[in-house]
Amino acid sequence: xxxxxxxxxxxxxxxxxxxxxxxxxxxxxxxxxxxxxxxxxxxxxxxxxxxxxxxxxxxxxxxxxxxxxxxxxxxxxxxxxxxxxxxxxxxxxxxxxxxxxxxxxxxxxx
Length: 110
Known about the structure:
Layout: H1 2-30, H2 37-51, H3 58-79, H4 87-105
Helix pairs in contact: 1-2, 1-3, 3-4
């Protein structure tokens, strides 16, 4: 159950980070209104707060989080930008999630 909670927390963290970066992108590149920077800042603050909720060492959490972030980012690419991931995207995600599993489930003796 702890693994499921961690995964859900990682996904929420990734969404907060992506939204926090996507909104300024819309303002800077797509000429959207500047007020989008307010929810962007809030989203990035939520992202930082969510990272603090993990009981493991922060470096390990950040490393494992990267695999989930990449997976969610490709989902965002498909859902928001309407760009369907290709075979190499899926292979890359499989490598990232495998690496995340090694980091999260590996030995803690060191």
